[in-house]
Amino acid sequence: MPELPEVETIARMLRLGGREQPALVGRRILGANLLWERTLAEPSSAEFVPRLTGQVIEDIGRRGKFLYFRLTRDWLLYHLRMSGDLLVRPARTPRETHDRLVLELDDDIQLVFNDARKFGRVWLVDEVDRVVGSLGPEPLDEGLTAESLFSRLHATHRQIKPLLLDQTFLAGLGNIYVDEALNLAKLHPLTPANRLTMEQAGRLLESIRTVLRDGIARNGASIDWVYRGGDFQNYFRVYQRTGEPCPECGTPIARIVVGQRGTHFCPQCQPFLFLNGG
User: Fold this and answer.
1) How many CB atoms lie within 10 A of CB 162?
2) Domain spans, the chain
3) Active site residue 3
4) How many C-beta atoms lie closer than 10 Å to residue 23's C-beta?
């Protein structure tokens, strides 16, 4: 599933254009073709096309793992889930097998939502918070301080790895960047959140921001056939490096399952210090 850096990269490309791809801001939606009805979460398919048609794309951005399009009257949101992707193609391009929703735009281009596994979803709503209102703070938001993160951590005894994956705690993090951030912060993934010190909370916040900024600078990680152009996977410290040497100490990277998610860490750099209440 694409995480914050991958979604940010897609939003930036759609907003600004590049690589011979036109920018979409300012373009009018001339029509839509819903090819897989379950892709649409809201509204009904009967309402969707006439309501969408004629609106202009005024901005494109990201909130957590959601892509949002601010339109003339409404908000169009995409969640890519496991295999979703947004592609800009010339108008009248033949349909591909996994195309789920096609928006016809002016200047003879299409915006195509392609989703092999059919888990992605699309919303058209009049208020963006109807979809993203329950998300936690953005990790890169300057308003999130070490002190506020420390308070949030100490409000729960949950293990740090599944807590950071909880989108209501922090928005946009997934398995890759949590594993990378915990390694950089030298925190074991099973550490109880309310046992972190203020210094550890600050180090964790800085580590999260470092790996996210690095990921964005490298256009995300390309580890599946869906994600295009990123190379952050070439700089992983621990993720999917089971048995390979830690870049800091040389200890083989270990893999455990935490909250049903494969979790990668260095046993030497990230010791578990809270056994038996210690």
Assistant:
1) 18
2) 4-132, 146-277
3) yes
4) 15
Spot the catalytic one: 12, 27, 228, 261: 261
Active site residue 42: no
Domain covering 4-132 in this structure, CATH number: 3.20.190.10
Residue whose tokens read 């892709």: 39
Q: Note if 186 is an active site residue.
A: no
71-99 pLDDT tens trace: 999 999 999 998 899 999 999 999 999 99
Which pair of structure tokens corresponds to residue 71?
């339109």
Whether 60 and 68 have beta carbons less than 8 Å apart is answered as yes
Sign, CA dihedral 65-42-91-100, equals positive
What CATH topology corresponds to 146-277? Helicase, Ruva Protein; domain 3 (1.10.8)
* Catalytic site residue from 5, 6, 63, 65: 65
Q: Is 2 one of the catalytic residues?
A: yes
Do 106 and 92 touch, CB atoms closer than 8 A?
no
Q: How crowded is residue 152: how many other Cβ atoms within 10 Å of its Cβ?
A: 17
pLDDT digits (tens, 9 = 90+) for 241-277: 999 999 999 999 999 999 899 999 999 999 997 644 4
